[in-house]
Amino acid sequence: MQPLKREPTPNDGAPSFVLMSWVFLLIGVQLVVDLVWDKVQGDASNLHLGIEALTGGISFILALRLFRALSRRNHTITNLTSALLASQQDADRWREEAAHALQGLGQAIDFQFERWHLSLAEKEVALFLLKGFSTRDIAELRSTSERTVRQQAQDVYRKAGLSGRAELSAFFLEDLLLPSAHE
Asked: For an engineered disulfide with 27, which of 21, 59, 72, 78 has Cβ 3.0 to 4.6 Å away?
């Protein structure tokens, strides 16, 4: 499992919550200092003092709201990171538990291909068909033409005594999809 990496948040040109919070907080502090200074000097009107008090209060409120939003965002990020880590651990556990079964399935498929006397190219094509790749995709992956892949697929079906891709998949998957004994 790869360790979680904290991706930097994309900068869309908008200032961050932290920066905006500090700006509003500094504006509020500056206004309070100015208010006190004006009151001490005694040369400010009540309207002037009221406007500064209102502006300072709004700045403090905005700063607090932004700090709370930042806190909630960090809490959400922490929860999502924990959930992601748990999901990654579940996926890793499943891979470990399924590795033995998948290895056995791979060996069983190889054994069946040998029984059908498939050539190496036909085995590759059959595996890609089982994985759901299209004829075009298989041709690209194997650096051959689609016509060649179609011919090799037909050879696989003929040697296996199957009518096509659906029967090829069903041959290997039918027993895997049986209902469990406790159902």
From this structure: 59
